[in-house]
Design brief:
Elements lengths: L18 H15 L3 E2 L16 E3 L15 E5 L2 E5 L6 E4 L4 E5 L4 E5 L2 E8 L9 E7 L8 E6 L6 E9 L2 E8 L10 E8 L2
Parallel strand pairs: 1-5
Antiparallel strand pairs: 2-3, 3-4, 5-6, 6-7, 8-13, 9-12, 10-13, 11-12
Length: about 200
């Protein structure tokens, strides 16, 4: 065997010339595969200006310098691309979405909830007893079937908030006055959080 069984780290062989090359290749591999962080999952077109050390997972139909490297981990190192085959159990952290993705042997799958958040300044109208108003907040990446929650930065004074996905990328929030009198909240920060289903 010339490499370790799981991470394929290169062994330095007896009387091998240029041992530093083998050692450097092993360190680069460790840098990519130990607690891996990727800039994006499933990218098919290589990024135009990657920083040294950054990684991505190639999509299912990569092009350009990534052609033929479907689903592999692509690391920019020393001004060139190096590719690593994923193995079952490899989990990467996606810096773009703060999600964890794992390789199941045939595809990258979401293994930890992805949380999406958005906030807007909102001034609800005065609500009479039993009255409600609905507003929407744009949350990129949210889809029908995801879970949604909302909060408001002021005392709700008996008003209840309900949040749901009403369309892709849109969270609807209902302010419902459940009291016996009118409530006029001031302007505040309306925050929504979506957990991917």
């Amino acid at each position: 065997m010339s490499t370790t069984p799981r991470l394929a780290l290169p062994y330095i062989l007896t009387q091998q010339a240029q041992k530093e090359v083998t050692h450097a290749a092993g360190l680069n591999r460790l840098d990519a595969l130990v607690q891996p962080v990727v800039q994006q999952i499933g990218l098919n077109t290589p990024p135009a200006s990657p920083a040294d050390g950054q990684c991505w997972t190639a999509g299912t139909a990569p092009t350009g310098a990534w052609a033929g490297q479907a689903n592999r981990l692509a690391q920019r190192i020393g001004g060139a691309w190096v590719f690593y085959a994923p193995f079952v159990g490899l989990v990467v952290f996606d810096a773009a979405t703060l999600a964890q993705w794992g390789w199941n042997g045939s595809a990258w799958t979401l293994v930890a909830p992805r949380l999406l958040q958005a906030s807007v300044i909102y001034d609800p109208p005065s609500l009479a007893a039993g009255e409600a108003v609905i507003t929407t907040v744009t949350v990129s990446g949210a889809a029908l079937g995801d879970f949604a929650r909302a909060s408001f930065s002021l005392d709700l004074q008996g008003i209840t908030l309900t949040a749901w996905l009403s369309a892709a990328g849109t969270v609807s929030v209902r302010f419902q006055n459940g009291t016996a009198g009118a409530v006029d909240l001031g302007s505040g920060m309306l925050r929504v959080r979506v957990e991917k289903a």
